[in-house]
Specification:
Order of helices and strands: HHHHHHHHHHHHHHHHHHHEHHHEHHEE
Helix content: 55-70%
Shape: globular
Strand content: under 5%
Number of helices: 24
Distance between the termini: 65 Å
Strand order of the largest sheet: 1-2-4-3
Oligomer: single chain
């Protein structure tokens, strides 16, 4: 019999997984591979159960899920992004989501199960990368624990469809293959796909490649040039893949405006506001990975073979470089920060006593910061009031006019089509001309149901309320929602019905 594995056993950094455990002997065979992956599998199963615990019981209309899934719905309906409707990101992940919606029959919770399973797959290449870099499983174990418990990643977007989060398995696997020198052409293509998922992923991928070239050599111009030659298959396949995907995307009519000009036209958030966001919103719950993955990255550039360059610079890029900042935008660098954190942990935990002390300290830090922040969203949260709205909407006739598509997706209802049907949030966060009275009246005239929810309430004026009152009757209302259904026969002159109260 083979003895039970210990995370404290050293492993060989260059050996394949089935040989990473010393002393198991040839007779272990595939059992050795199973033992190598067992800690990662345990983390994956635990994270997957946590992410799917409340699916079908929680709705968050304010996150990206509704917008992006309705883009997928429009693609299934034969609409073409940019040409037919507005969306400010490349189309490739929406095509994948369209396939997922088709497989699940449009069932949003079922789609979310597959999505969570996909996103969490990134932990396996992260685990193998850290084990290969450090020659130990304990740092690899803690790296994937930090990855799946990072609150700004795990609270919402690891189970509710978001583009950056959906792209991280491509990044993690590409980095793992590149670091281990396995299938460099495939590694470059995976990094190219990652770069093509959202435009801000491009500099992250370039930083990864730069780190591999600069820190993969021994130093000096000659070594860097030799490193470039050694990595030419990786670099060529990246350029070819990313170039082809972006070339096709930008060839679609309307894509340059939606993908580039819209983003540059957004108001620029002040630097102080961004720093305060990190200090007040991110740091209290996410301090462990932010500190260990970012500050630790500066200590391990060489030990991580350059991956930490992308972790450190990528964090600063996401925080300071773009017109706006949101904590969940850092998801693209979370795998890289987890790798840096794992390598940094290995440096400060040399020796059995240091490993135990460092592990206890890390577990305590996560217990104080991340885990309390995760318990509410992942375990306790419920949205019975929102699902009541969905239930009422299921009995209403299509098409539905609303600004938040997630309600209609859960109810299996199609929205009234117009250019901004999937993403009316863009009016709130950009310098776009406001949704005009003419456009509003046109959409209303083609709708059989209107769902008033917090975002659409902000777009209503007295004239628009009067227009709705003349054509629709109230079917349902609560403090934050109203469902209006078209009158039959058309109404005559009379007093407009009162509208449900908007959000305070």
């Amino acid at each position: 019999m083979v003895s039970a594995p210990s995370l404290l056993e050293p492993v060989s950094a260059d050996a394949p997984p089935e040989r990473l455990r010393p002393g198991l002997g040839r007779e272990a065979g595939q059992t050795t591979r199973v033992r190598f992956w067992l800690p990662a599998v345990a983390v994956y199963v635990g994270a997957f159960l946590a992410q799917t615990w409340t699916l079908g019981k929680v709705m968050l209309p304010s996150v990206d899920e509704g917008v992006y899934l309705y883009v997928a719905r429009l693609i299934l309906d034969g609409k073409v992004p940019y040409r037919d409707f507005f969306i400010s990101h490349p189309p490739w992940e929406f095509l994948g989501a369209a396939g997922g919606l088709w497989v699940t029959g449009g069932d949003v919770p079922a789609f979310s199960v597959f999505y969570a399973a996909w996103v969490l797959l990134a932990l396996f290449p992260i685990y193998r990368t850290v084990a290969s870099l450090t020659g130990r499983l304990l740092p690899a174990f803690w790296a994937v624990v930090l990855f799946v418990t990072y609150p700004d990643f795990a609270r919402w977007d690891a189970r509710f469809f978001a583009l950056r989060q959906a792209s991280v398995p491509f990044l993690a696997l590409g980095v793992d293959l590149a670091l281990r020198g396995k299938r460099p052409a495939l590694a470059g293509s995976l990094l190219g796909v990652f770069a093509a998922c959202v435009i801000p992923n491009v500099p992250i991928a370039l930083l990864v490649l730069a780190g591999l070239v600069l820190f993969g050599s021994e130093g000096g111009p000659g070594d860097v040039a030799r490193s470039v030659r050694q990595q030419k298959r990786l670099l060529f396949s990246f350029v070819l893949t990313a170039g082809a995907l972006y070339g096709v995307a930008f060839a679609i009519p309307g894509a340059p405006w939606d993908l580039v000009l819209f983003q540059f036209g957004r108001p620029r958030a002040p630097i102080l506001e961004r720093l305060l966001n990190v200090w007040t919103d991110s740091l209290p719950a996410s301090a462990v990975l932010l500190l260990l993955g970012f500050f630790g990255a500066f200590l391990v550039f060489r030990a991580s073979r350059g991956i930490s360059l992308a972790a450190a610079a990528g964090f600063l890029l996401g925080l300071l470089a773009y017109n706006y900042y949101s904590a969940h935008h850092l998801a693209s660098v979370v795998p890289l920060m987890a790798i840096s954190a794992g390598v940094a942990f290995s440096i400060v935990s040399r020796g059995r006593t240091a490993e135990i002390v460092a592990s206890a300290g890390l577990a305590l830090a996560l217990g104080v910061t991340a885990l309390p922040a995760l318990k509410g969203p992942l375990i306790d949260a419920r949205s019975p009031n929102l699902f009541r709205v969905v239930q009422e909407l299921e009995a209403c006739r299509e098409p539905v006019f609303t600004a938040q598509p997630l309600y209609a997706l859960h109810a299996g209802r199609r929205l009234t089509f117009h250019r901004f049907a999937a993403d009316m949030r863009s009016f709130r966060v950009s310098n776009l001309p406001p949704f005009s009275d003419e456009d509003f009246a046109d959409v209303v005239s083609r709708s059989n149901t209107v769902l008033l929810e917090p975002l659409l309430f902000t777009m209503l004026t007295p004239a628009r309320m009067q227009l709705l009152a003349g054509q629709f009757a109230i079917r349902f209302q609560d403090p934050e929602h109203g469902i209006l259904v078209r009158r039959s026969p058309p109404p005559g002159p009379g007093t407009a019905p009162s509208a449900p109260a908007g959000p305070k």
